[in-house]
Each structure stands twice: as C-alpha cells, then as structure tokens.
Amino acid sequence: MKILLVGNYAPDRQESMLRFAAVLAEGIAGAGMAVETMSPQPWFGRLWPSASGFGKWLGYLDKLVVFPLALRRRIAAARDVVVHICDHSNAHYTRHLQRVPHVVTCNDLLAIRSARGEFAQNPTGFTGRQLQQMIATGLQRASRIACISEATHRDLLRVLPIESRRAMVIHMGLNYPYRPMPRAEATPRLESLHPGLSGRPFILHVGGNQWYKNRGGVLRIYEQLRALRRDAPALVMVGPPLPFDMAPQPDVIVLSEVQNESLRALYSAAALLLFPSVAEGFGWPIAEAMACGCRVITTNRAPMTEVGGAAAAYLNPDSDLENWAADAAGKICEMLDESSSAREVALRAGLEQAGKFLTTEMIAKYLELYREVLAEK
C-alpha cells in the first residue's frame, strides 16, 4: 500500500495545513509505509504571486484546472494506492477519485456554514458560495471523512447529507513536539523576538485575522484588564499584522512569522494563553500551550471545551460584548492571582490533557483508516 497525500497550494499560505501534511508524511514514512505528497503548483500563480485580488484568480486556474490533470495522470496506473486529501477545502478533487480509495480530512464546516448564512457576522459573496458548494459536493462524494474533532463531526452530519458510517473522528495531534522550555533557555529567545519581553510577564494570544479568531475581542478584553489593574502584563499577539481597523494599544506586541521553537518559548513563559475564538475546527494553540505548561482561558463552546477539557478556564460566549470583555478580564485577574499550588495543579492537568493529542496516535488511526478504505475497493 502507498499513500498519496494531496497538500495545499503554497501561495495560499495556509501554514497549519502545510505543517499537517508534512507531519503526516513524516509519520507515515516512520511507520514503514510508502508515501508521496502532491500539491497544486503555482504555474499561473507565478505571474502575479498573491493570495488575494488577481493573484487569487490565477491561483484558481492552478488549483481547479491544472492540478486535476496532474492528479488524474498520477493515479491512472496506480495500484494499491490510497489518496488522502489533507484539507477539506480541496474536497472538490474527490470527483477525480471515484475509482480510487481515498480519505478527506475535514477541519471544520465554518466556510460552508457561512456560505449558507449561519454566521451573520461573516457574509459570503456569490463566488464564495459557489466555491463552498463545490467543496460540500466533494465531501458528499468522499469515500471516508476524518473529522478533527467531535464538534466538526457533529457539524458535518448536521449540515451535509452524509451517512454516519463514512465519517469518523481522528483528533489532531500536535504538529511539533511542544514541551515546557526552561526559563534560562526561553529568555534569550524572547529577547530576540522583542526587547519588551525581557523579564516582563505577558499574556499570549495565537491566531490570525479570520473573523472567528476574534482578535478584536482579544483587544477589548485587554483594554478591560488594563482598566482593572495597573500592573497588567503585556499582551503578545502572535499572527499576522493587525488589520487597519484594529487600533494598537499600549503594551500590545504583535509578532509575525514566529518559528516553532520561539513559539514554544512564548508558550512556556506566558502567564496564560487567551484564546476567545467564536468558533474553531479544533483549536491547536490550546493543546500546544498546555503541552508547554501554560494556563489557558478560552471560550466555553465546542471544540474549545473538547480540547481544553477540565484543565482550561472558560469564558461565557453569550453575553453582550462589553459585559463579556469585563467578565473575561475579571477571570484573567483571578488566574493571575491564583496561588502557586493551585497553578501547579492546573498546569499538571494541562500537561495531562495535552497528552491526549499525540501525533503517534493520530498517525496510527490514519493508517488503520487507509487499510479499511483499500480493503473496500
């Protein structure tokens, strides 16, 4: 049996999905299985390299016209090959795989649900709705679908007419061996990231500018926290630069393109991770932070509750914005003021919870799934 992984289009800069495909390839090879990765290549996209505007449309030519030709050629003479589409946003390729055993990993239904009007705060245009319908149809054609959380699994079966036997849950494993970093090792890394991190306590947020990441909510919470206490830690936001409509605040540090070891240092040194997402497919930073011995406060909504378990602290997502931010700031104060013994108990619980998301276990479950779909053909 050989596994053919279908990865993402690199110019789209979907870093988490690129890392996921790389972790899969490494784990499958480590298990002694033959593995190959194919991804759409930027042929037209090289003419105007961009994930937006005209470059985005050129990218669609690479992804929707050129790559299917390459994929069909690759599988035409294949024997005992299982194709794994690593990101459901490429599920439209299943139309070319109906005679080939294949698996799709479904990360979330957020874009499909937005296109169907479930999120008023994230309206979808006409072309976006057509693309999401293509993806939804591709998921409906899939031989098997591996959902990365119970929450995503529930959404999939609720939103799309898919037989439950074709969908299962395989939790994400950590895409890097995150673990606590000693202070002596973390300090020089922090200082190299930003001089404002030298010996100063800070709260950490990790996430992009997608609507559901709620970066605006992070800033509102921090503003309330600064109003509550003069000695509020700094806020470090790891991700792309803030959009123009999010005015920077005092003591807010934005770090972009942070490498894994530097992120591990940030998790290990942070007073806590603030992760108030409106929605997620999984919530990688929650597990990453806990694996590094970092306290987590996140939204009391699945899948954040699924990943954080009893080790995280939770925010009520249903109150109005101002009350919600004030409530969140109050809970952060409580966490910052907890006794060393209470903090130690919570950190141990976090390490135990993070241990539920082992990459080796994820790989083993995918290998079992590959064997099942191959046996069915």
Please characterize this protein's 3D structure.
- By secondary structure, this protein is α/β, with parallel strands linked by helices.
- It is 45% helix and 14% strand.
- It folds into two domains: 2-173 and 358-376, Rossmann fold; 183-354, Glycogen Phosphorylase B (Rossmann fold), CATH 3.40.50.
- It has helices spanning 15-30, 53-76, 110-115, 126-141, 150-159, 183-193, 215-228, 260-269, 284-291, 304-308, 321-336, 340-354, 359-376, and strands at 2-6, 34-38, 81-85, 102-106, 144-147, 167-169, 202-206, 234-238, 252-255, 272-275, 296-299, 313-315.
- It has a six-stranded parallel β-sheet, with helices on both faces.
- β10 (272-275), α9 and β11 form a beta-alpha-beta unit.
- The mean pLDDT is 92.
Which features would summarize this protein structure in a list?
single chain; 377 residues; alpha/beta; Rossmann fold; 2 domains; six-stranded parallel sheet; 45% helix; globular
Count structural domains. 2
Helix content: 40-55%
Mean pLDDT: 92
The fold-level CATH name of the largest domain is Rossmann fold
Number of helical elements? 13
- The end-to-end distance, rounded to whole angstroms, is 13 Å
Strands in their spatial order, largest beta sheet: 2-1-3-4-5-6
Looking at the overall shape, the CATH architecture of the largest domain is 3-Layer(aba) Sandwich
CATH class categorisation of the largest domain: Alpha Beta
Radius of gyration: 21 Å
What is the CATH superfamily of the largest domain? Answer: Glycogen Phosphorylase B
List how many beta strands DSSP finds: 12
Largest sheet: 6 strands, parallel
**N to C succession of SSEs:** EHEHEEHHEHEHEHEEHEHEHEHHH
Estimated share of beta-strand residues: 5-15%
Ranges where pLDDT stays below 50 over 5 or more residues in a row are none
